[in-house]
Amino acid sequence: MDQSAIDMLRKSKVAQQYHLIDGKPVPASSGETLDVITPIDGSVLTSIARGTSVDMDAAIGSARTAFEDGRWKNMPPAARKRIMHKWADLIETNALELAVLGVRDNGTEISMAIKAEPMSAAATIRYYAEAIDKLYGEIAPTQDDVLGLIHHEPVGVVGAIIPWNFPLMIGAWKIGPALAVGNSVVVKPPETASLTLIRLAELALEAGIPAGVLNVITGEGSIVGEAMALSMDVDVLAFTGSGSTGRRLLEYSARSNMKRVYLELGGKSPHIIFNDTDDLDKAAKVVAGGIFRNSGQVCVAGSRLLVQKDIQKDFVAAVVKAAETMQPGDPLQIDTQIGAINSAAQLEQNLAAVDKAKSEGADILLGGVRSLEETGGFYMGPTIVDRVNPTDSLFQKEVFGPVLSVTTFEDEATAISLANGTDYGLAAGVWTSNLSRAHRMVRALHCGVVHVNTYGGPDVTVPLGGVGQSGNGSDKSLHAISKYQNLKTAWMQL
Fold it and tell me: Taking the model in full, what pTM does it have?
């Protein structure tokens, strides 16, 4: 990356943004807009269309028409594959523009954003493009005078509601497989990070994806997200976000057409350090990165540190030392390790969680206050909270900020009990030199991803999903494709 190129893009004016319906930019039917506040300095960056239920219905109608007339689903698989590869090429070509635009919108540090957003999205689109002409139906093992065929068909119209922390990466996890198998898609971006998803859809059109196949409606979740979830013409709803919203989406499904709803919700992921860990200094640095990169605004962030009692003092001191080198700064500077908090509301939520921990008797070892307030932006440094009990709010509730709780354990059984002692089950980390213990922990932990002697990094080849109140279904890997297909049996008498 070149800092001068980033600085030039930083200064570029961002035009008012519109919905994308049937391949055309369309203003909100009400004529209303929402200001886009950049978390870098709290200023107004641009505006987006403030969508209505009328707008969402128009986008869903466009997607339905495109699906039924077969302009995409009936295209030969090899042709869809070529278009999606071209789309991935365009994302890569425009990667720096997309990354800087996203940072101005949601505050992720540019060093992370370039890889985690456009480059990750391009890789995901390319992965599912490659799968298109390698997916087969099945022949059932029936009696000799019967032929049983199992067809895998696109579901129809897919609604995707995307979060603000990594809109391109997570958006591609849902859009990629849905489009690859022939569906039409309507995307509802997050209110505080819509810009890159609009641009992503524009690049899809440029690559040759037909109008109406991919539509984008911006606005408030309580209005356009609700309209999508209540629609009788959306067949599958894919969502990443909060548990409270996820519950409402399930209710809306029951109130409408009982659409399938796939949810990737919150997490309170444990990072477990045993006293036989080979390199405790390395583990401490990884623990710090696992919670403080992107200001803790990561679904799988290792927000609970569980450390064996006899190494607690020295290990926590090492984590504090590592965290002290990761102070927030201008997210558009290449050497910044921690960017901005996405919004003023999220910053307030983070600080309130720390105040609650204090009131419950925990010790604040580092941070816990707003940083760089003079910039007008939304910043908070790494925060480490010691002596957190299993019943404390900070142990049980997701913060989604740069806040690490510390709890000690005596033995393996206690570590497992503590790790599984929340409603969530998204990810976990285990550090040990004992291979047998590593395997035991992988089996015992109730979550979708277990990292062993590392944290973060699983690519698109493996699934990401949660258990408990972390959701259902999986993003990524070939397993994700099944969410966007129906099975149809053909039973033929020979």
Answer: 0.97
